[in-house]
Design a protein that fits this description.
seven-stranded mixed beta barrel
């Protein structure tokens, strides 16, 4: 939760009184007349459609990089490039049934251990945002007595521990490609009842597959009942969600930015000027950015069929996705931006767009890679500790028109000194220590009955936090215990997962590998080794995350 402005200013004063170094949000010590505003909007990525039969999931490679020079505090919220995967609905599509998987790389207001390096969340949203699940043990609510989404995802991999704050990339990642996607696995069987009511639940476990430099394969999956539980009180919607339905193959691809710090001021002539926090994109030697690569859609022959045959007694499936069951979306260039600069309380008509095309040209670097070519006259080539960046113009002048106004790029020396915009410093604001993530400790909780078989263990992450985790038998992890499965259902699920653990290593290509670029790495502290005897059928579960001393 973002503290109100007076709290932040009080915290700054306290730091000053203690003689500590202070980094303030721009409005905190800005001169009179300088207004704290913000930049937000979408970057739109057009791509060609594929055949509707490719409705069994997707994968893509997205660039990961530090969007802003310095983390600007918990008000900062933006995703990097990603998508929204919805269940297919017949026409006319029913109203008020919003539910999808829309996670990805980024920063969020509830991130507690943030750095300039993005994290990954799963972002599964149930009916009309009643719940969302971001990963094992992470969701909309942290009230374990009234959990919302925190039991929606089950840990599948025995080699990765998932922090409550999100899946960390290696610190310093800058422009490398992070491969991920969701494909359904038949881990459970269809059910005619859900939570004891005559509501069906499908058998599609939408599973997160990752392709990183130091980890490849499935990590976690959404429990089918996570989607169907929304119909317990609305039986007319049964069978409408991702537990039972295929996925829309042609999805929007965008970068959603909800807040980047900015300031504005009016000069003596009445003209308005603005400055945004240093905002950058990865850059190659040709002053271009490759931000999305190989968006691919799949049908069930790509993976489902071979795994289902294996679980029915056939030969082991390798888990490698069959390219014959896939279709790649093509890029032809084009695209747009809705990035705007405005005051927090601005009306819609007061949210004025940046002249994005004056400094960025959206291009297809090849038919399966989308990115930008930067205008060298306005975009600065910079080198950070993590790698080469293209830093966007910082200064803008508001040009008003009868039909449309626009923020146009100006050089720093064109901005009147009286605005004092040049004096503003964008730094990380002071904040109290991050509150730890903790899980229930009472003996009768799902976390203790029957509880872990080994641990606790600790691992120190690059974001400055310590994750405490323990090893659970797969079907005894809290998310599975919460899923209302019978003993027979849990036994079948356990046997299937043990097969996966024995046959699917973390160094095999599951997703089709990229044809260009370098793979990003996960934070190596997330990669763990099962204790002896727990190599198959057991998973690491985070039980606490806290700030390192």
């Amino acid at each position: 939760m973002t503290p109100p402005l007076p709290f932040r200013f009080a915290a700054a004063a306290l730091f000053l009184a203690l003689g500590l170094s202070v980094a303030l949000l721009p409005g905190a010590l800005a001169a009179e007349g300088v207004e704290e505003v913000e930049m937000s909007g979408y970057l739109l990525v057009p791509h060609e459609k594929v055949d509707e039969r490719f409705d069994a999931g997707f994968s893509m490679y997205v660039a990961a990089w530090p969007l802003v020079r310095e983390y600007p505090g918990n008000r900062f919220q933006t995703g990097l490039f990603g998508t929204w995967m919805f269940a297919k609905q017949e026409e006319p599509k029913p109203k008020n049934i919003y539910s999808d998987i829309e996670g990805g790389l980024g920063w969020w207001r509830d991130t507690r251990f943030a750095t300039e390096t993005p994290k990954f969340i799963m972002g599964g949203v149930t009916l009309e945002f009643d719940e969302w699940a971001n990963g094992p043990g992470a969701g909309k609510s942290r009230d374990w007595n009234a959990p919302l989404g925190v039991y929606g995802v089950a840990q599948l991999s025995p080699r990765i521990v998932w922090p409550a704050d999100g899946l960390n990339l290696a610190q310093g990642t800058c422009g490398e490609l992070f491969g991920y996607g969701y494909l359904p696995l038949p881990l459970t069987d269809p059910k005619s009842t859900t939570a004891g009511k005559p509501i069906p639940t499908g058998n599609q476990s939408w599973t997160l597959f990752v392709n990183a430099a130091n980890f490849k394969g499935p990590i976690a999956f959404f429990l089918p009942s996570y989607w169907s539980r929304a119909t317990l009180d609305k039986p007319e919607l049964a069978g409408r969600f991702l537990d039972a339905r295929p996925a829309e193959p042609n999805k929007a691809v965008q970068m959603e930015t909800q807040y980047v710090p900015a300031v504005q001021a009016v000069d003596a002539k009445g003209e308005t000027w603005a400055r945004i926090a240093p905002t950058s994109f990865p850059r190659n030697a040709d002053n271009e950015s490759a931000v999305i690569h190989q968006i691919t859609a799949y049908d069930k022959t790509a993976l489902w069929d071979s795994v289902a045959a294996w679980f029915d007694g056939g030969e082991p499936a390798s888990g490698t996705i069959d390219p014959a069951g896939s279709a790649r979306h093509r890029f032809t260039g084009g695209g747009g931006s809705t990035w705007r600069i405005y005051a927090p309380d601005a009306r819609r008509e007061e949210k004025v767009a940046l002249a994005w095309n004056s400094f960025a040209t959206p291009i297809a670097l090849d038919e399966h890679t989308y990115g930008y070519r930067w205008n060298a006259a306005t975009v600065t080539e910079t080198d950070s500790f993590s790698g080469p960046l293209a830093t966007l113009p910082e200064y803008y002048r508001l040009v008003k028109g009868e039909e449309k106004s626009e923020w146009v790029v100006v050089a720093a020396d064109e901005v009147p000194a009286e605005t004092k915009l040049a004096e503003v410093e964008f730094h990380t604001p002071p904040a109290p220590p991050a509150e730890p993530y903790v899980t229930p400790d009472n003996p009768d909780s799902l976390w203790k009955t029957p509880g872990p078989v080994a641990g606790p263990f600790e691992t120190r992450l690059g974001d400055g936090s310590i994750v405490t985790y323990a090893w659970y038998r797969f079907v005894d992890q809290p998310a599975i215990r919460n899923a209302n499965l019978s003993d027979d259902e849990r036994a079948r699920l356990q046997a299937r997962v043990e097969k996966l653990h024995r046959h699917w290593p973390i160094d095999r290509d599951y997703l089709p590998p990229p044809s260009r670029g370098k793979l990003a790495s996960l934070d190596p502290a997330l990669i763990v080794t099962p204790p002896p005897g727990l190599e198959a059928g057991y998973v690491p579960i985070a039980i606490r995350q806290e700030e390192a001393e």
